[in-house]
Amino acid sequence: MKTVLQHILQRKRAYGRLPFFDFLRDDTLSVRQRLAFYPCMASFIMSFGDLNRHVLRVEPSSDPHQQMLNAHSHEDDHHWPWYLEDFSKLGHDTPTTPTAWLRFLYSDACARNRMLSHELAHLIWGATPRVRLAVVEAIEETGNVLFALTTPLAERHTRSTGVTLRYLGEFHFALESGHAMNSDHAELVSITLDEAQRADALARCNRVFELFGAWADELHRYALARLAAPGPAHGLHAAAAAVAAAGAPGYL
Ligand SMILES: [Fe+2]
Ligand SMILES: [Fe+2]
């Protein structure tokens, strides 16, 4: 597993250099501008609880690796309410109809967000528990890249508005870093993989980074479109329309 973990860290470094993350680092933009991507990731974030509860978790299990996955799934299955909390705090409860909101969620502008959980379910269901642990580790590292960048933005938001963002800020980041730093890592390193398992784990982790790369590109496209079409009432849909007009890229 050690080789796989080293590979994940390599892919993580490349992932962190994608244009979306440079956008989040761009101090010439305001915090609000940089957080403009937020509504676009709704479908993926909201389905992440189900991914943990209904895909990753298999209970009861006598397999020690599946038991590790189960424990992890209990830590990660209840973060979506914090996403909703920040959604409201960031002012996205603008007047709109449920129909318009559903149309936005299912628009081409959010296609990769919708498909990401399906793709991850496919990767997880097709893998043995040992390999699933590698897949989860890769997913965790993509989260670490994002939340390491949103945490300082959330702090700045709190300083200027007095509003605490729990999903984007320190509260969530500390929990996520907590489960990356607890016994998980030491236990992961000690797991042995035979050659076929290692090849499978590497291939699935590569796919995780490929999928999240496309996901980050989608968030970036949406944020840029949203900056070009601001406005409290119409921004959401105008942005989706702008992304669609620019031509949604072919599905990965
Ligand atoms: Fe989380
Ligand atoms: Fe996590």
What keywords describe this structure?
single chain, 252 residues, mainly alpha, Heme Oxygenase, Chain A, 13 helices, 73% helix, 0% strand, binds fe (ii) ion
Task: Provide a descriptive summary of the structure in words.
The protein is mainly α and 252 residues long. The chain has one domain (2-245): Heme oxygenase-like (Heme Oxygenase, Chain A, Up-down Bundle). It is 73% helix and 0% strand. It is built from 13 helices and no strands. It has helices spanning 2-15, 19-25, 31-34, 42-56, 64-76, 80-89, 98-105, 111-125, 129-161, 170-181, 183-189, 195-228, 235-245. It starts with a helix and ends in a 7-residue tail after the last helix. The model has no long low-confidence stretch (mean pLDDT 92). Bound molecules: fe (ii) ion (2 copies). The site of one fe (ii) ion has 5 residues, from helix 9 and helix 10. Residues 76, 79, 172, 176 line the site of one fe (ii) ion.
Pick out the low-confidence regions.
none
Helix content: over 70%
Tell me about the largest β-sheet.
Answer: none
Query: What coarse outline follows from CA principal-axis ratios?
Result: globular
Structural class by secondary-structure content: mainly alpha
Question: What is the CATH C-level name?
Answer: Mainly Alpha
How many E-type strands? 0
Question: What's the architecture in CATH terms?
Answer: Up-down Bundle
The tally of helices reads 13
